[in-house]
């Protein structure tokens, strides 16, 4: 049998061409529009009642013959209190400092875990074991109270006027320093695992190629492996940062005047528990939202070298808040060249 | 003095005896092709040559220097990492799976080691890098990332990257076996050109055409030993050992 030469596409009958699929406005399309309208109305109504409590208040009073359980004017008043804003500032600063230090500690611990010096490996393993295995609340209390108790009992100058006692009092009375220390140490243990996972995710061939070019291990790590591992490390680090922002509230037990403690003190006076805590929640939500947006932007930058990433900023925000149903369809994966054996 | 002198090289992976006394001399400017069945130790031997793998016996000298070790009272003592790195800088290696740095453009891949390892200034490294990319036919791909290149193009960048260190010796580990068939030719062409310029090359490959036309010597590795060697014309037409005959008939 001989082969057959097929006609080129232009020679074919154009009316016989297969048309591409058409996107139809199906049930899901109309359902989405209807539900979105309802949701927008509800949100607008809630926002309006916050600005102008009148209609909601009258509705509630007529229906239940009670005052509104939520004192909207007080809720709004909370946002004007100076101690609240200074609490917010402390929370934010503490989170940023502790997270940054945690990242550095995590990187150190991860690199120490593969050190040629056995003591370094042991120290790193022990550190991660202890700080991941105990509650962070416990660590905060131990650092803020325990260390100063320990130092006080070690002071050779029994009058309590020696420098050791001074240091003990300084640590014991500085809730910010204690919280910063405890949160950083705790975070470092988690970050080291994230960094390690990032490093081991990089193909071993990268280190080999770098070494074959005459690079030493530290140089290859710094220039070749870590920059690639960053793509794997950054997304969970963003989550850690968001988590850290909320964990700072635990430092209230050490007496730090951060947002949660300030809130507790405020409702202790006014008894407006719900109003104050919801307002504090709004503050936390605002701060974590800022971090979420920053995280999404950084991840977009990291992915930008890949051609398949969308660059449209509106599309990015839409995805951030509404997500996407694209995951329902399998994405064609770009496979690396397969190894022929 | 030969470029490479390997004497009785032994290598174990735990209890697996992978290299069982490999002897190979490679002269300056010589192109040696290593053939052999999968698992016969070809990759391991190449990796021993630039000390990516430690050896358990024998001696390897490259360019007159003991590779990766110092000899003290007849024993090998591991050389300092910095000095091993300096030795490796003299030996280019091309991998089966390219191993380009994906976070760098083609040109950045090529200039990274000359700048960081050899301390070359950026401007001259860039000029040389462009020159080398042009040499492998990729002048216009300098600012493209590896994932935007075909396999054949990636492997040619990898060759340029190795050449940028001005190596005295080039090692190729099955440089075309991860490629689609139609991309093999462009890589072999770059390698052939390199051989014609007098580069000393050790090439693990099953590309018989390349071996016949470019190599000065073909070597068969079998179960961790070199079983037979000779000029390609003889090696491929009149092999002596039955295992060589068997192997050649399996790949031809
Ligand atoms: N890192 C390693 N650990 C244990 N065994 C290995 C390792 N690398 C290679 N081997 C084994 O050594 C033998 C030789 O491998 P290799 O040198 O890759 O062969 P070739 O390249 O000729 O196919 C194989 O049996 C392989 O499984
Ligand atoms: Mg191999």
Question: Could you explain the architecture of this structure?
Answer:
The complex is a heterodimer of chains A (341) and B (252). Chain A is an all-alpha fold and 341 residues long. Chain B is an alpha/beta fold. In chain B, α5 packs parallel to α6. Chain B is globular. Chain B starts with a strand and ends with a helix. The mean pLDDT of chain B is 95. Classes of the chains: A mainly alpha (341), B alpha/beta (252). The complex binds adenosine-5'-diphosphate and magnesium ion. Adenosine-5'-diphosphate binds next to β2 and α1 of chain B.
Q: What is the CATH architecture term of the domain at 83-253 in chain A? A: Orthogonal Bundle
- N-to-C series of helices and strands of chain A: HHHHHHHHHHHHH
Write the element-wise H/E pattern of chain B from the N-terminal end onward: EEEHEEEEHEHHHEHEHEEHH
Structural class of chain A: mainly alpha
Gross morphology of chain A is: flat
Oligomer: heterodimer
CATH topology name of the domain at 83-253 in chain A, in short, is MetI-like fold
């Amino acid at each position: 049998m001989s082969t057959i030469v097929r006609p080129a596409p232009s020679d074919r009958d154009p009316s016989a061409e297969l048309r591409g699929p058409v996107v139809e406005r199906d049930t899901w399309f109309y359902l989405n529009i209807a539900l979105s309208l309802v949701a927008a109305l509800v949100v607008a109504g809630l926002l309006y009642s916050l600005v102008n409590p009148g209609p909601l208040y009258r509705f509630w009073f007529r229906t239940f013959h009670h005052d509104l359980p939520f004192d909207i004017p007080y809720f709004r008043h909370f946002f004007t209190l100076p101690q609240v804003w200074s609490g917010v500032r402390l929370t934010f600063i503490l989170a940023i400092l502790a997270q940054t230090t945690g990242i550095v500690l995590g990187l150190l611990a991860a690199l120490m875990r593969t050190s040629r010096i056995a003591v370094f490996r042991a120290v790193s393993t022990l550190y991660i074991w202890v700080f991941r295995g105990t509650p962070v609340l416990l660590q905060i209390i131990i650092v803020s109270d325990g260390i100063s108790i320990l130092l006080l009992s070690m002071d050779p100058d029994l009058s309590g006027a020696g420098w050791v006692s001074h240091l003990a009092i300084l640590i014991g009375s500085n809730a910010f320093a204690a919280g910063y220390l405890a949160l950083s140490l705790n975070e470092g243990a988690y970050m080291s695992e994230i960094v390690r996972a990032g490093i081991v995710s990089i193909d071993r061939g990268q280190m080999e190629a770098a070494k074959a070019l005459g690079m030493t291990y530290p140089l290859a790590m710094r220039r070749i492996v870590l920059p690639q591992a960053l793509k794997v490390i950054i997304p969970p680090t963003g989550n850690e940062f968001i988590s850290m922002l909320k964990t700072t509230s635990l430092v209230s037990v050490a007496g730090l005047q951060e947002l949660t403690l300030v809130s507790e003190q405020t409702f202790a006076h006014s008894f407006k528990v719900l109003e104050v805590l919801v307002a504090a929640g709004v503050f936390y939500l605002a701060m974590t939202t800022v971090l979420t947006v920053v995280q999404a932007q950084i991840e977009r930058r990291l992915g930008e070298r890949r051609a398949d990433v969308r660059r449209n900023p509106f599309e990015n925000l839409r995805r951030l808040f509404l997500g996407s149903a694209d995951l329902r369809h399998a994405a064609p994966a770009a496979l690396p060249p397969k190894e022929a054996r | 003095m030969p470029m490479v002198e390997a004497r009785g090289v032994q290598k174990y992976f735990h209890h697996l005896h992978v290299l069982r006394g490999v002897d190979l001399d490679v002269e300056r400017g010589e192109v040696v092709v290593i053939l052999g069945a999968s698992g016969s130790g070809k990759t391991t031997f190449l990796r021993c040559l630039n000390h990516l793998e430690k050896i358990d016996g024998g001696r390897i000298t490259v360019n007159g220097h003991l590779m990766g070790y110092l000899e003290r009272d007849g024993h090998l003592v591991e050389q300092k990492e910095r000095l091993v790195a300096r030795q490796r800088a003299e030996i280019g290696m091309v991998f089966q799976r390219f191993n380009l740095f994906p976070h760098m453009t083609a040109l950045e891949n090529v200039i990274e080691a000359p700048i960081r390892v050899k301390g070359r200034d950026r401007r001259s490294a860039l000029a040389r890098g462009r020159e080398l990319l042009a040499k492998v036919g990729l002048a216009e791909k300098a600012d493209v990332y590896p994932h935007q290149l075909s396999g054949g193009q990636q492997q040619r960048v990898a060759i340029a990257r190795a050449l940028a260190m001005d190596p005295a010796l080039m090692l190729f580990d099955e440089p075309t076996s991860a490629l689609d068939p139609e991309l093999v030719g462009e890589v072999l062409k770059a390698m052939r050109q390199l051989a014609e310029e007098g580069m000393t090359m050790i090439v693990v490959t099953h590309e018989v055409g390349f071996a016949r036309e470019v190599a000065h010597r073909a070597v068969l590795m079998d179960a961790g030993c070199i079983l037979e060697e000779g000029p390609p014309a003889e090696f491929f037409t009149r092999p002596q050992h039955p295992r060589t005959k068997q192997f050649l008939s399996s790949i031809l």
